[in-house]
Amino acid sequence: MKMTAPPARPAATAFCETSFVMAPGECHGGHVHESWHLLYVAAGGFEEAGDSGGFHVRAGTWRLSPAGLAHEIRCGEDGARCRNIHITDRALQSRLSHRLERRHHVLDGLDADPNDITSDPLLAELILYELVARAILACLGEDGPPAWLADARAEMISEPGRIDATARRFTVSREHFSRLYARHYGCSPRLTRRNAALAQALRLLRESDEPISEIAVMTGFYDQAHLTRAVTARLGQTPGAIRAVAVSGSRNSNTAVRASE
């Protein structure tokens, strides 16, 4: 089995992703995973057997599995190309263990496209939280979010603002909004707001020449010090250091272009 890993993500991320390819007829013997995980079969398929019985996993299917459940995989004649998303957030693992049976869950009704998982690690984390929440609801046979909640989420990502103001705009209490949001999107509105604001700030740091103090205000932080604390805590670098790397890379690129002319 050939394994590949995506580019490194921030240390604080709640997920760890890998991809693997299995040759036709290949067998991956009995093994267990250390955490709950989502697996997506992008192409091909395989037969799986283990502690919770046997079943077939075909292309285009998601499977949600618990930690410590022994199983083995045997590929068909077309092999398989898969993507594994391991859930490292302990609170999320606990929620899964509390709400779902300890078995493999094949999610035929989960129409999520893994290509929607953006290369931006901060926004990708939000999509993965939502994916797990949707998987839980699919396993329980429950409906997705109401339209107004989906609108509120889109608004929070595109224009991060105060959570209580968003709740008031949709005529619900902050407490009700937060509970319903976590149920359908797998994380708190606060985490969504923080990640969206950080993603916007990082884009401006790398792509604009706006003063860092202005970027802080533009993206919803109280001031430059607040932005610096948030960026450093998440990425281990200050905004100034991130901008310096971006400027250096741009200069090197321009020098290379001029040299080739």
UniProtKB/TrEMBL annotation:
Domain HTH araC/xylS-type: residue ranges: 157-245
User: Keyword set for this entry?
Assistant: DNA-binding, Transcription, Transcription regulation
Extract the signal peptide range.
none
Please name the GO terms that the record assigns under molecular function.
DNA-binding transcription factor activity; sequence-specific DNA binding
Q: A single Pfam family, by name?
A: HTH_18
Highest taxon listed in the record's lineage: Bacteria
What name does UniProt use for this protein? AraC family transcriptional regulator
Q: Which organism is it from?
A: Marinicauda algicola
Which InterPro entries does the entry mention? Answer: AraC_XylS_family_regulators, Homeodomain-like_sf, HTH_AraC, RmlC-like_jellyroll, RmlC_Cupin_sf
